[in-house]
Amino acid sequence: MTTHTSVPQIGHLIGGQLSVADLRDAYDPGRLNEVVARVAVGTAEDVDRAVHAAHRAFPGWRDTPVAERVQKLLAAAELLAGSSEELAPLLVREHGGVLWEAQTDFALGAGALQHMVSLAEEFLRPVQFDDEQSFVSVEKVPRGVAAAIVPWNMPVVLTMMKLAPALVTGNTLVLKPSPFAPAALTLVLHKIAATLPPGVLNVVHGEGDVGAALCGHPLVRKVAFTGGTATGQKVVEATVPTLKNVTLELGGNDPAIVLDDADFDAALDRMLKGVYTRTGQICFAVKRVYVPRGRYQQFADAMCDRVNSYAVGHGLDPEASFGPLNNEAQFKKVLNLLDRTRNSSATLVELGRKLDPSSWDNGYYMLPHVVRDIEHTAPLSCEEQFGPVVPLIAYDNEEQVIAWANDSDYGLGSSVWTTDPDRGLAMARRIEAGSTFINTHSFESLDLRMPFGGVKQSGIGREFGAIGLSAYVEEHAIRRLK
Ligand code: NAD
């Protein structure tokens, strides 16, 4: 029986007005009979209204002094941090994470917003030259209406990584959340939008057709997308007729390379946070682990021992190490990879325990798996699993492991594990990736001073820092002859 007890209604926000037409139920992935929210499903007409609202608000926001934009957005960061207590439990119930993961999403989001906004005044200062022949001023101007499209896994921080640079540089924004985690994000965005002029921040809900309409809209001058690689390709296609700037943060298949001198206990303490946090559903999660053949059994045994202590259950259960997968398609994708692995020479080890066995089938629950003795070429080693399942691959020498790490269409994160800092740095420099971490590889590895993004089919462009701001401005060069 489906339960509906007084759930929030999540509408579009267009030009400062809420509209709640055509609501659909959103379910808890850990209690499939529970409706968490009723969420609007938009159309291309809603997108058009939102883009026009953003377009009308643009001149006023562009001409607002940057110091005032900074103040408003710093206040928004406080509002965001202060909303975590109220909204993180709702986020847990819609995206399936455990409570501290949802709280971390809010905290990282507030930190990212504050950090990027505080860089803006210096970044936006014009670069000028004045000599006997001429005066030159190179000015950074906003592009206009920006569109942001985000996934469900860490919706708050992934939104703030786009909202902050877009709005502080003077653009207006239309955001499309994922239908798999729309509610908590939208409620906090409503609060933030109420502190800004109407139309500066707009939200339209819906599926891929709404995202595509947003990407293709002629008045949208910038698209910032985070999601899967196949969807990123569709985003680019939709923007071709109106040629707009696009930033893509896409999938990954991050390698973790354990060197023969690594301290396994210390490495596993940190590495496992990068494997199973958010049920493995993080773009730069550790998705394949390479271990030197001579120490393989020792590493695999130590890893299995630790993972066996995990307990899986609903995200609001304080005992849960991690929660269910987010949606049926994702659940089936991981099950399919497991099935394909079962029919190979690899050994699939299922570990951990079920917190509430009687409710296990009422959610997309999966125990943690470690896959031993698997080949580098196996589907589970080559494809992004996005689940609590990790392949452990034995390698023979450094040349081989570097070749295998780079033998991927992806190139998002990566890591090297060693007690020798120079060796770690030398190996890191040989990996094709947007980021390489040494002796760390999880959400704890992020440093706001590091640009974030991927190479190859993991994306185009970078978020954070001055390079993140630069994706939202055009350089306008002015020269006066004397
Ligand atoms: P997804 O690509 O299915 O969806 C992402 C967003 O795109 C959603 O809002 C969706 O509704 C929208 N969308 C779907 N079709 C569209 C279209 N044709 N045009 C425009 N928008 C469209 O991804 P997901 O399942 O929500 O998220 C998981 C994927 O996201 C994984 O591959 C993961 O690695 C990736 N991801 C990447 C990063 C990063 O920073 N690189 C961060 C988080 C997640």
From TrEMBL:
Q: Where is the Aldehyde dehydrogenase domain?
A: 27-475
Tell me the InterPro entries matching this sequence. Ald_DH/histidinol_DH, Ald_DH_C, Ald_DH_CS_GLU, Ald_DH_N, Aldehyde_DH_dom
Q: Gene3D superfamilies, from UniProt?
A: Aldehyde Dehydrogenase, Chain A, domain 1 (3.40.605.10), Aldehyde Dehydrogenase, Chain A, domain 2 (3.40.309.10)
Note whether Oxidoreductase occurs among the keywords.
yes
Q: Which Pfam families match?
A: Aldedh (PF00171)
Going by the UniProt record, its keywords in alphabetical order are: Oxidoreductase
Where do the catalytic residues lie?
249
What the record says about family reads: Belongs to the aldehyde dehydrogenase family.
What is this protein's record name?
Aldehyde dehydrogenase family protein
